[in-house]
Design a protein that fits this description.
about 160 residues, alpha/beta, Restriction endonuclease-like alpha-beta roll fold, 6-stranded mixed β-sheet, two-stranded antiparallel sheet
């Protein structure tokens, strides 16, 4: 059974002594904001400044992003960029090429990653990167990683992860 918090349009969620507010758009699939929140909590130990839905002055807007300390204020590139759900090939190629030192993640919901990993390998072919590119599957049961109080309890043991380096 999932948290009753997720039945609302606006969620206040907690992880690692931080919190975020997630707002589900009226035409947005439920899994899109859920994956953003799960990515936020999953990668927070590595990127404590992680946040969701922040414009970074790029043509593309990341679903989840982190900067090194106050680097966002100085115009430095992000150290982490996460995308939840569908991501166009042009976007993947563009950001992978321009942000070679940024850790990227593409998250899918309850999806077999094999077919998508082949597609992703093709998009990344020939792009020299200095940071990992992760592909994550959130299984259906990861909805239970959010408790009734909005606490997000998720680890890499709860997901399927493929890393391209």
């Amino acid at each position: 059974m999932s948290s009753p918090i997720l039945s609302r349009r606006k969620w206040k969620l907690y992880a690692n002594d931080q919190h975020i507010i997630v707002v589900k758009g009226t035409k947005e699939k439920f899994t899109h904001p859920l994956m953003k929140a799960l990515l936020w909590a999953l990668y927070m130990p590595e990127y404590p400044n992680i946040s969701i839905e922040i414009r970074i002055g790029d043509k593309y807007k990341p679903d989840v992003v982190a900067f090194e300390d106050d680097a966002e204020l100085r115009g430095s590139p992000p150290v982490f960029w996460g995308e939840a759900g569908q991501v166009g090939a042009d976007k993947i190629k563009s950001i992978a090429r321009r942000y070679r030192e940024t850790h990227f993640v593409v998250a899918k919901w309850n999806t077999n990653l094999h077919h998508y990993s082949t597609h992703l390998e093709g998009l990344l072919d020939g792009i020299k990167r200095d940071a990992p590119f992760d592909l994550i599957n959130f299984p259906e049961e990861t909805i239970n990683c959010i408790d009734d109080d909005g606490n997000v309890h998720i680890t890499f043991d709860d997901v399927e992860l493929m890393r391209f380096e």
